[in-house]
Amino acid sequence: MTYWNDDEEKLANQPIGYWTWAANKTVSAYVRGRLAAIGITQPQWWVLHQVQHGEDGATRDEVITAQHANLDVGAGLAPDIDLLVERALLTLDADGRLRITDDGRAVHGRAAGTQRATRAHVHAGIPDEEYVIALNVLQRMIRNVGGDVPPV
Predict the structure, then answer these.
(1) CB under 8 Å to 136, separation ≥6 — which residues?
(2) CA–CA gap between residue 15 and residue 29 (Å, rounded)
(3) Which residues pair with 57 in a beta bridge?
(4) Which pTM does this prediction carry?
(5) Integer Cα distance of 130 and 5 in angstroms
(6) What is the tens place of the pLDDT at every residue in 73-123?
């Protein structure tokens, strides 16, 4: 393996908080830019994806609750849900369930393809075994400071 910095002692003393923040900021900006290029925001992608894969659609509360655990967005999704309904990518039925429309499925399909391509680009040159090691280390650090690591 070749790294940009092979000084293991120096790397071992780097602050994890900085590097996780820098990775999150950089990767999130890249992902959001790719989704914006096809006319959708990342939170709107999360909503469409959840409704698309819900067995019977989803209520607004189900979407908000599920996403609250995912990056703490929670109630902040309400305007995105409303916009997706306005754009006729989702409908809201009489039972209060969100359903994806044909146009919504088309946008979801483009977004899913964009997400796959984005993941491939972000993971380029990183074998799965290294990626798994990185995630296991981060999860151990979370547990070390009393955090919860939800099952995947």
Answers:
(1) none
(2) 22
(3) 55
(4) 0.84
(5) 16
(6) 767 888 999 999 999 999 999 999 999 999 999 999 999 999 999 999 999
